[in-house]
Amino acid sequence: MNINLTKIRIDCGTQSRTKIDDLVVAQYCESIKGGTVFPSVVVFHDGLEYYLADGFHRFLATKAAGSPGISCEVINGTLRDALLYSNGANGEHGLQRSNQDKRNVVIRMLQDLEWSDWSDREIAKHCHVSHVFVGNIRKELGASKEATKFERGGKTHTMKPKKEEQVQEEAKEEWPFEETPEQQMADAITLLKAENETLSDRLAVATMDGDEIEKQMAESTIKDLRAQIRLLEIELAAVKQSRDTFQSENAQLMKQVAMLQKKIKKQEEK
Questions:
Q1: Each residue's pLDDT tens digit, 133-158
Q2: What is the pTM of this model?
Q3: 150 and 157 Cβ atoms separated by less than 8 Å
Q4: H or E element in which residue 223 lies
Q5: 110 and 41 in contact (C-beta within 8 Å)?
Q6: Which of 4, 86, 116, 172 has its CB surrounded by the most CB atoms within 10 Å?
Q7: pLDDT tens digits for range 7-30
Q8: What whole-number distance in Å separates Cα of residue 145 and Cα of residue 120?
Q9: Closest Cα to residue 170, out of 139, 128, 126?
Q10: What is the rounded CA–CA span in Å between residue 14 and residue 59?
Q11: Which pairs count as long-range contacts for 184-187, CB under 8 Å and 24+ apart, including other chains?
C-alpha cells in the first residue's frame, strides 16, 4: 500500500535507534533516484493515524528524493503496538544496529510499567539480544524483580530470579562487531545526554504543582516534545547533508565551466 508521507507519524517515539545515519539516508536517496525499489516500511494504523514502526532511513531517504509517497506494510494496531514492534525492529534485517541501539531498546522495555514485568528471556527474544545482556542492564537500572510470572499450559507460574553467583557463571554477551574507541565514546556521551534529559524531566515533573494525573500528563507531553525535537534534529541533519552535497556538486560544476571557458578562449585565439 502506498501512503503519502505527510500522513505518516514519525514524531511519536517509535524510532528505536539512538540516531539516524545521515550518510545512509543520502545513499538510500541516491539509490531511490536511480530507480532502486526498497522493501516496504512498516506502519501501524489505529483507524486515525499511521505510525511508522520500522524504516526510518528509508522514509527520510524517500522524502529527500522528493517522492510524495512510500510503500507500506500496514498493521492494525495502536501507537503502543508500534512502540513495541519498533523495539524488535532491525534485529534480523535492515541496517545493522549498534551496541547502543540494542541497549536503547532493552532500556525502553525495562523502563515500561508493563514490559518490565516480562522475563529477561522474553525481552531478549523480542529485542534480538541475549538474556544475559538484558539481565545486566536490568541490574544497572536497579529494576530487578523478586519473581517473574509466565504462562505455560494454560497455567500461570512464578519463577524466582537466579542468585548472583548463578548469573556470574552465565556466558557474557559476545558481540560479532566491535565499535572503535571513538564510537564508544560518542555512544557514551549520547547515553549520558539522554539520561541527563530524562532525570531533568523527572525532576521538573516531581517539583511541579498539581495532582498525580496532571503530572503524568506533563511527563507525557515532555516526552512527546523531546521526540519532536529529535525529529527536527534529524531533519536538520538531512538538510545540512543535502546542502553540503549541493555545494560540493556546484563547486565541481563551476570548475568544469571555468576549464571549458579557458579551452574555448584558447581555440578562439588560434
A1: 999 999 888 755 545 555 555 555 55
A2: 0.54
A3: yes
A4: helix 212-269
A5: no
A6: 86
A7: 999 988 898 888 888 999 999 999
A8: 10
A9: 139
A10: 13
A11: 187/18, 187/98, 187/99, 187/100
